[in-house]
């Protein structure tokens, strides 16, 4: 395939700059819109440290990453998220490790494309560029030996050679379609080494993709590897093997021939396609055009090519036959894993609109998704916390592009895709008129290109308008259900020092009108601070216009979870965007909300418990029983609760820990609605610790008294 040439180093002109300078310390590879990969020694050099320093860069400040290509430039700041330091080997010219993944503070420019990786093999002809990004600095090399985690490269004695400033840069195949590894260093021999200058004039070494993959996996960076696009051994393109390409292209060719049989028309649309994808545009001289087969192959190997081509074809549809052929082309594309729903321009426009929406209201897109796609399993960023960051949007849109379409409307018109339905719902509740108009216009154009019936789109908009106009009853209470993860019990023994226990959780919202809903939570186990943050974000996302609606959090645990210090769990920095450096801006869960434990397990163990609890609540008994030395045994307390205090609705427990746990079980089994105790007390001598609570005071005021007590005792969580 030669007509659609890859632009030289497309998506690769990424440089890591020295602090306070425009000079490049080295190069890097764009892994995804939000991450770049380079050598750790390049990071050290950029920060003015020793090249082989092993310490992970921390307080040195953000790094500056420059992007260059297609006549455009851009800069981002970045921080190190994965650090594999360089490790010198005794009596060796090479070193191990030496990788760093940098997280960008905002996505890379949209005109850059992440690299596609492939395995390094001996005999490969590769090309590298200096970190400065100038096209003239290209250096051609050949992989002469691949041994273990090292690839040894030789350059010809003419042209540029790899040297300082090339480190961390991707090694591109000659057609610039994929990357086989990263440049690490040029061999600089001296008289003390086995290779002298006359023996190794232009020898360098690299870390192959195979070693990059192994090092990142060993560093626990599975999420980074998941984002990496990888070419098949045949080189047909990411995620798509040569037999699949041939099959898919053969299916598209007859439809393309019906639409673009005329070479001149095909050449015009192909040039528009190349320009839309940022590829070099062949001149119109001579009437040259790609063959139908070449165009078909390109459409199934370049993920946004088919959508971008149909974007220019749709306005030129000449009649029902052309529309039918265009619909067939789109339908065939939807069957291919490597073909995306949106064109380059549509994708960029949608992300711009969603970033504005998310900056104004981080909960709007998840709320709209839960309504627009209520019968679908939402992608992680939408489902996990109920709030989005702008950095999440790329992954969200990419996931939703692959969602199955909704039900097809009558008349055989194409169904409304999930992403279009979500956009319609977001548009209905967008914070300003300009964004609403932009999203509605985007929906119209995409629907027209896809051949979606205006009636079907109007129905989705009517549903969205109804949803946006409906005001849900405010959330008044949150129900948090905790389950121990694996072998970790939920009892006091499971909570390790520093809150190391992990728990599976479910979060429910109870509204003032009595309706309930569930907040999507992570599938796996969470640390206490993650659960505390989840509860706070669920409360904030369900408040509506009343910032003081959510006051209560009921924590449902098993019998062995009654000693969990849930009230002390950190709720996170709610103002992290404004004050990311102030870790003290955090509150414990029990200081922010009225936290109470619930234990339904006791009702299953004691059949009379629920009826007794209702009876005690209804009795209106104002007295609270305080358990002191006179009623400290199990028999003494049982006798009181069954005779003189049969109607009491509250019990305050004092005494040694072991005996107090048994008394607690007894109170719950006998249906006492409110039981209060000091989890840290050792015995009756510590009873005065609760005096500030007025534990025997009015029960209806107790939840707020406890919250205020917790606020004073441990309201500010440790940073």
Helices and strands in order:
Blueprint: E1 14-17, E2 24-32, E3 35-38, H1 40-46, E4 63-69, E5 72-88, E6 95-104, E7 116-117, E8 125-128, E9 139-147, E10 150-155, E11 170-173, E12 179-186, E13 203-208, H2 209-218, H3 222-227, E14 229-230, H4 242-259, H5 263-276, H6 292-301, H7 305-313, H8 320-334, H9 344-360, H10 364-372, H11 380-383, H12 393-401, H13 418-429, H14 433-450, H15 454-469, E15 475-484, E16 503-511, E17 516-519, H16 528-541, E18 552-556, H17 589-592, E19 594-598, H18 601-605, H19 609-619, E20 624-627, H20 634-642, E21 650-653, H21 657-669, E22 674-677, H22 702-714
Parallel strand pairs: 7-14, 15-18, 18-19, 20-21, 21-22
Antiparallel strand pairs: 1-2, 1-4, 2-3, 3-6, 4-5, 5-6, 8-9, 8-11, 9-10, 10-13, 11-12, 12-13, 15-16, 16-17
Brief write-up:
With 719 residues, the protein is an alpha+beta fold. Helix content is 34%, strand content 19%. Strands 1-2-3-6-5-4 form a six-stranded antiparallel beta barrel.
Overview of the structural elements:
The protein is of the alpha+beta class and 719 residues long. It is 34% helix and 19% strand. The strands form five sheets. The chain has a six-stranded antiparallel barrel with strand order 1-2-3-6-5-4. Strands 8-9-10-13-12-11 form a six-stranded antiparallel β-barrel. It has a five-stranded mixed beta sheet with strand order 17-16-15-18-19.
What is the straight-line distance between the termini? 57 Å
Structural class comes to alpha+beta
Strand content: 15-25%
Low-confidence stretches: 194-200, 233-242, 487-500, 544-548, 715-719
Instruction: Work out the helix count.
Output: 22
Instruction: State the share of residues found in helices, binned by percent.
Output: 25-40%
How are the strands of the largest sheet arranged?
Answer: 1-2-3-6-5-4
Largest sheet: 6 strands, antiparallel, barrel
Shape descriptor reads: globular
Oligomer: single chain
């Amino acid at each position: 395939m030669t007509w659609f040439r890859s632009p030289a180093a497309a998506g690769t002109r990424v440089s890591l700059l020295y602090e306070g300078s425009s000079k490049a310390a080295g190069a890097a590879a764009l892994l995804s819109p939000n991450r770049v990969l380079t050598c750790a020694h390049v990071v050290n050099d950029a920060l003015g440290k020793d090249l082989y320093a092993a310490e992970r860069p921390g307080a040195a400040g953000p790094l500056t990453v420059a992007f260059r290509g297609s006549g455009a430039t851009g800069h981002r700041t970045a921080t190190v998220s994965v650090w594999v330091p360089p490790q010198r080997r005794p009596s060796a010219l090479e070193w191990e490790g030496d990788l760093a993944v940098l997280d960008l503070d905002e996505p890379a420019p949209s005109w850059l494309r992440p690299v596609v990786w492939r395995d390094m093999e001996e005999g490969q002809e590769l090309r590298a560029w200096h970190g400065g990004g100038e096209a003239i600095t290209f250096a051609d090399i050949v992989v002469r030996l691949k041994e273990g985690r090292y690839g040894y490269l030789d350059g010809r004695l003419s042209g540029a050679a790899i040297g300082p400033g090339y480190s961390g840069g991707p090694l591109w195949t000659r057609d610039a379609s994929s990357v086989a590894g990263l440049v690490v260093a040029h061999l600089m021999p001296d008289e003390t080494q086995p290779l002298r200058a006359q023996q190794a004039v232009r020898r360098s070494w690299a870390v192959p993709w195979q070693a990059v993959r192994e090092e990142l996996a060993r560093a626990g960076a599975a999420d980074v590897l998941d984002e990496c696009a990888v070419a098949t051994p045949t080189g047909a393109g990411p995620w798509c093997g040569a037999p699949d390409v041939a099959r898919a292209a053969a299916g598209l060719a007859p439809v393309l021939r019906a639409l673009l049989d005329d070479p001149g028309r095909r050449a015009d649309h192909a040039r528009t396609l190349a320009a839309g994808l940022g590829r070099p545009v062949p001149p119109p001289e001579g009437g040259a055009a790609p063959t139908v087969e070449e165009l078909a192959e390109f459409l199934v190997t370049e993920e946004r090519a088919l959508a971008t081509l149909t974007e220019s074809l749709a306005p030129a549809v000449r009649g029902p036959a052309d529309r039918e052929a265009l619909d067939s082309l789109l339908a065939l594309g939807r069957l291919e894993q490597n073909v995306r729903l949106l064109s380059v321009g549509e994708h960029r426009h949608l992300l711009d609109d969603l970033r504005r929406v998310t900056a104004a209201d981080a909960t709007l897109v998840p709320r709209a998704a839960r309504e627009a796609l209520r019968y679908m399993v939402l992608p992680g960023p939408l489902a996990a916390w109920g709030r989005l960051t702008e950095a999440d949007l790329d992954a969200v849109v990419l996931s939703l592009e692959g969602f199955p379409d909704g039900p097809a409307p009558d008349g055989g018109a194409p169904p409304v895709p999930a992403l279009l339905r979500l956009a319609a719902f977001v548009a209905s509740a967008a914070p300003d008129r300009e964004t609403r108009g932009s999203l509605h216009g985007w929906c119209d154009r995409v629907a027209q290109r896809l051949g979606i019936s205006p009636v079907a789109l109007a129905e989705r908009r009517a549903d969205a308008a109804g949803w946006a106009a409906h005001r849900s009853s405010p959330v008044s209470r949150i129900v948090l259900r905790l389950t121990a993860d694996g072998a970790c019990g939920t009892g006091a023994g499971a909570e390790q020092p520093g809150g190391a226990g992990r728990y599976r959780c479910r979060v429910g919202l109870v509204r003032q009108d009595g309706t309930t809903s569930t907040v999507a939570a992570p599938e796996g186990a969470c640390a206490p601070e993650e659960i505390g943050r989840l509860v706070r974000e669920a409360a904030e996302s369900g408040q509506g216009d009343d910032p003081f609606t959510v006051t209560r959090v009921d924590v449902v645990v098993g019998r062995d979870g009654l000693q969990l210090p849930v009230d002390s769990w950190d709720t996170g920095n709610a103002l992290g965007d404004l004050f990311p450096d102030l870790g003290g801006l955090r509150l414990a869960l029990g200081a922010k909300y009225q936290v109470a434990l619930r234990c339904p397990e006791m009702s299953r163990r004691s059949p009379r418990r629920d009826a007794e609890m209702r009876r005690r609540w209804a009795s209106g008994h104002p007295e609270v029983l305080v358990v002191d030395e006179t009623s400290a045994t199990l028999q003494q307390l049982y006798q009181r609760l069954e005779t003189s205090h049969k109607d009491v609705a509250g019990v305050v427990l004092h005494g040694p820990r072991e005996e107090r746990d048994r008394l607690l079980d007894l109170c719950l089994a006998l249906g006492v609605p409110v039981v209060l105790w000091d989890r840290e007390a050792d015995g009756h001598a510590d009873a005065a610790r609760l005096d500030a609570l007025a534990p025997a005071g009015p029960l209806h005021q107790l939840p707020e008294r406890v919250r205020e007590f917790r606020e004073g005792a441990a309201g500010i969580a440790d940073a």
